[in-house]
């Protein structure tokens, strides 16, 4: 093994503590409320940025490709992950046995590589939508697994931006980033205080909005796809309550995915994939033509 790696035998070694940090510990900076009370949410996130953890070789590779600054790396002591060759010599590099790495993460598997990165600066809404043709808007989607799956489908099916409210899960949380396979790092994201205001801003920028709902009086997805032209915003709410009345009243089209009898809805991540394929795919075809 190269001399650049520090071999660690025990998962209890304090040098590995940084790789077991959870979400609140990864966002350690606390800014007094008197400072942040009049700040837009993206500014609050910027001054309290902290770090994020990338787990697995593909996620680490995508974080590096996105230009994120790596702070430390942990890999296999017997066969270091090839992605480690992309990391500069000034970055602390640790190596441990598969058993030590398995116990460290608590995932039940020993990932080839785990890396700690400096969290990228948060973006303002205008920065996200300026060059976007398709965006997703999430309200109260607080499950990291769902957010990660939504992001993965959105990126694969042609979304260019993500807009979140305060209550939705962090796309760069450990679980969300694993589920998205690191694609969240390539999707420009803005977190806003008021999604109603954000939808109004999108409308003024020429976006047509589609809100998902199981309501029987809404448009079937295939009908809505016929209106999927130009700039498009797909708006989704929580699995428990769906979109709030305020946002439902603000969207241009209320859309439902037709279901078999006895089933009223899909998991929000599955619904996002279906809707992205139908609506964004239609709009992409128009662009290609």
Can you give a write-up of this model?
- The protein is α/β, with parallel strands linked by helices and 289 residues long.
- It folds into 2 domains: 5-119, 2-Layer Sandwich (60s Ribosomal Protein L30, Chain: A); 125-281, 3-Layer(aba) Sandwich (Alpha/beta knot), CATH 3.40.1280.10.
- The chain has 12 helices and 12 strands.
- The protein has helices spanning 23-26, 33-36, 41-47, 57-65, 98-105, 125-129, 144-156, 174-179, 195-204, 221-225, 245-250, 268-288; strands at residues 5-8, 51-55, 70-76, 93-96, 113-118, 134-138, 161-164, 189-191, 207-212, 219-220, 231-236, 253-256.
- The protein has a 7-stranded parallel β-sheet with strand order 8-7-6-11-9-12-10, sandwiched between helices.
- β7, α8 (174-179) and β8 (189-191) form a beta-alpha-beta unit.
- The longest helix is centred in the last third of the chain and has 21 residues, at 268-288.
């Amino acid at each position: 093994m190269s001399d650049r790696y520090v071999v660690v035998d025990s998962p209890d070694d304090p040098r590995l503590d940084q790789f077991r940090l959870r979400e609140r510990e990864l966002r350690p900076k606390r800014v007094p409320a008197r400072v942040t009370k009049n700040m837009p949410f993206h500014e609050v996130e910027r001054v309290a940025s902290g770090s994020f953890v990338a787990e697995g070789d593909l996620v680490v590779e995508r974080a590096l490709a996105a230009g994120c600054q790596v702070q430390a790396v942990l890999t296999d002591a017997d066969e270091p992950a090839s992605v480690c060759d992309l990391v500069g010599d000034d970055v602390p590099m640790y190596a441990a046995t598969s058993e030590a790495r398995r116990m460290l993460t608590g995932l039940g598997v020993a990932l080839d590589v785990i890396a700690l990165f400096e969290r990228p600066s948060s973006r303002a809404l205008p920065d996200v939508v300026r060059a976007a043709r398709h965006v997703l808007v999430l309200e109260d989607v607080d499950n990291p697994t769902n957010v990660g799956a939504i992001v993965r489908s959105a990126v694969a099916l042609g979304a260019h931006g993500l807009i979140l409210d305060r209550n939705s899960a962090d796309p760069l949380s450990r679980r969300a980033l694993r589920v998205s396979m690191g694609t969240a790092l390539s999707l420009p994201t803005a977190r806003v205080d008021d999604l109603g205001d954000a939808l109004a801003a999108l409308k003024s920028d020429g976006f047509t909005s589609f809100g998902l709902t199981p309501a029987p009086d809404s448009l079937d997805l295939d009908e809505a796809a016929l209106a999927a032209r130009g700039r498009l915003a797909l708006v989704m709410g929580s699995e428990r309550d769906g979109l709030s009345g305020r946002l439902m009243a603000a969207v241009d089209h209320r859309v439902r995915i037709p279901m078999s009898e006895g089933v009223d809805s899909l998991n929000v991540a599955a619904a996002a994939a279906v809707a992205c394929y139908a609506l964004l795919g239609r709009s992409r075809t128009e662009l290609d033509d």
